[in-house]
Amino acid sequence: MGTLTPVRPFAILASTPNENKQPTGDERMDALRMNLELMGYRIEDSRREFREEIAASREEFRERNDLLMKAISDLLVATGAIATRVERIERKIA
What we know:
Elements: H1 25-93
């Protein structure tokens, strides 16, 4: 449901026909209930956004981890090849 901005609890009561009338207890409770409901929607939206960001971060971490593991593997292969060459050269010299 998109991001909603909570209303001031009694802002909705400003449209009552008698501007000087104090809101009743029921009207106040309705306004408070509406404000809490709107805040609840914002909390749910924030949770959903955070979950999406965390999932994206995890995926990015996995991709970087895969690249790092491949680079390490390539370095180990190259190191092994260099060690083999050094051994051959040492045998020729000896």
